[in-house]
Amino acid sequence: MERKEEVEEVPRGELRTLLRNLRRSRTATFGLIYVIALVIVAILAPIISPFDPYAQDLQNRLQPPSFPHILGLDEFGRDVLTRLIHGATVSMQVGLEVVLLSLLIGVVVGAISGYYGGWADMVCMRIADIFLAFPSLVLAIGIMAVLGPSIFNVVLSLVIVSWPYYARVIRSQTITLKKMDFITAAIAMGASKKRILFTHIIPNAIPPVIILATLGMGSAILAEAGLSFLGLGVNPPIPSWGSMVASGRDYILQAPHIVISSGLVITITVLAFNLLGDGLRDALDPRLRI
Amino acid sequence: MDKDKVLLEVRNLVACIETGSGLVKAVDDVSFDVRKGEIVGLVGESGCGKTMTALSIMRLLPEPFGRIVGGSIYFEGQDLTKLTEEEMRAIRGNKISIIFQDPLTALNPIMKIGEQIVEAIVAHRKVDKNEAKRRAIELLHSVGIPDGEVIASQYPFRVSGGMRQRVMIAVALACDPVLLIADEPTTNLDVSIQAQILELINEIRRKRGTSVLLITHNLGLVAWLCDRVFVMYAGKIVEHAPTEALFANPYHPYTQLLLKSVPKLDSPRDKLTTVEGEVPNLIKPPSGCRFHPRCPYVKEFCRTVEPALIKVNTDHYTRCLMQDSRYSGEWK
Prior knowledge:
The structure holds two protein chains of two kinds. Chain A is mostly helical. Chain A has eleven helices and no strands. The longest helix of chain A has 37 residues, at 80-116. In chain B, β11 (310-313) and β12 form a beta hairpin. At the A-B interface, α1, α8 and α9 of A face α2 and α6 of B.
């Protein structure tokens, strides 16, 4: 009897619905495809890049785009396309590590704040406020100046400036969830506080943060490029988009292809993450669901 | 069976809840008991304190606004109001389970049904995962879901309301509790499903000997299912009796009006009787008898004299001055 009712309900796989809603927006679809392509490029960089990123050809330095160097050579005669491809690995690595670590800290701090409230909430949120009070890039520059340039330090400094955003979102999610019926039902079932936090609250609090994490990828990549541009990021000669813009800047008139190609890649990548994030926000909006 | 043995005894329970506009005594000096294997109904309008009573027994009053202010709740000899949170946790879901009104919101939306039942089992029993899974499917069978294996692997939003309520009951029965509190278990279901769920509750009592405290505003359910009934009004018990006695001979005007407002098939289709007026504001409850602003038989002294529970028959008590020997002459 009830079986019938069950069939009538539209089967909606969460992921499938999400993708269907995403595809409705052309810009979000572009973001998604670009990001997937970038991930593949970043992983397969050593295999797909046509040249060695460190091989110098000083006789042909600053060579404009031509075959076989499609995007030309840089000031040391290294292939620009190859260095852009390897730079993708660095950017994605930094972006992913920053987002995942910030998310981890954000979840722990935010969930404790929101769930236990009172004194713990007060302490955690005031610490977050202190970090939020600084302009984040200035704080990151300061930390990098103290720690010295390296990929690890870039990740560390960017995590320090970005975790409070995640903590705040998780905290507000936790506070909302805490009052929901199924949490009361879980307590009524005899579940311990720890169990309620880990199996009921945190898994339900994470999905909305995915939007923030996607946007966070874009800004982490941009911040890394910014730090590398200032010489505070990734150590040369490791290829990084930001340092490519910085070194290309000296030859902007003789060889504009270096600045243009690396600048464009940064712009499009950040744009793609933002479009994907916006698309996800719309796709996850319950008002758009059918 | 030891049917007369009292399982749960609530004595002079007072529970308050803080609201924006003041402190509300939602449960005011409530006493009742549930015996082994018995289904007891707690009946009243919305906002009369039924759910607050249920939440008090489970010690689940919404913190920090709600709290038990006085009285005691004896369950299997111990006073639940005096237990620590950890001791209480060992009882919740294990000895006493509760089914909530809305099965849609009372299940975790992103956790498979099977996992939620398994969680309820492992919260109190030391069993390995496969054993717990097997028991979860067994439980689904016992609440009338034949293809338990399939349903166990579904998310709650994939199944119908009636099915979800069955799942809730399966979760509640996971550790074979001795007392099941059902808070409006059928309010959000359509009528044919309602009957099935009630039949299921009755069957659980029959087969497992589980005592049930059924909280409802629907007197039809009470007549059909309950052994004894407690009628609650504005935070107080106003009448209680074995079901048949209450339906045959209601003494309190509120009970009488409630019974009259139940639609019946065999009566002429006139206008339905309603209980005039509104549930009183419990921040400032009416003086004297709390029902006096709505009572059709109200007399002057009803406004000032607070009635006590008066014995009118074996096991039948009512809180009305009409039954008080000092005032009974007034209505003649």
